[in-house]
Input
Amino acid sequence: MFVGFRILSRKRTKRIILTDLDGSLLDHDTYSFGPAKSLLVMLEKIGIPVIPVTSKTFSEVVKLKNELNNNHPFITENGSAIYIPKSYFKTTKLSWKIRNNHFLIQNGYNRDYLIDSIQNHANEFLAEFKTFNAMQKIEGIQSIAKLAGLSEEDAWNANNREFSEVVVWLSTDKRKQMFADCLTKNGLLVQQGGRFLNITGLHTKGEAVKKLISIYCDQPGIDKCDSLAIGDSNNDISMLEGADTALVIKPRKRKPIKVSRKTKVHISQEFGPKGWVSGVTEWLQNFS
Output
């Protein structure tokens, strides 16, 4: 037990934190996790994994995980893929692919298929959006860097997508909804992230989270899991609904997202990583 916390864990119960990044663990504007640094170190020491569940790419998450000293599984591109370090679990499955020294569980379409589908099915909207793929080809990687407030290296990582496409919407909210409905009718999912639209197949963060939790629960010596999901945007709702406990991070410039669940759901009083710290601390103290 860690000094200052009443109960952190119970034998044969695996506690897991599944967290969105931008606007939750990371500050929405600076991308800093500074306020959470000490708590992250403590969680690592007591064996509670912090699992990124994000719209970010493999390249982006690996860079961040190195900064966090985090060697746990992670979910990329809004649930499109689950990556697991090869030596992480004792029990694995032959159906898992191997990529970049990780096991890969692919849930979504490849990016090329998504780009073709957007072009084929959304012709009437072509003047109302830009894709990251087109921006890099036509305007160069610096255009993405400037728009997202990133270095060119980070912009390259953000555009190094495997199973999703990012759309920068330029028109009205009404037209955006029509665009989303058009793609949904053709088997794609349009989700609003913190800044941009994210296009994937018809899968969600929530589905990927359920798969990963079940893998943890199937490991030797584990009878059950106790999961905390953390997020601040609409694309986080599915995992917030599916976890044992949900922590909604209060955004700076809008009202908190709404979830349908009525129990074990908390809304932070602070923004970004400060709200993350207070919410996780409360969860640690109220394990039953």
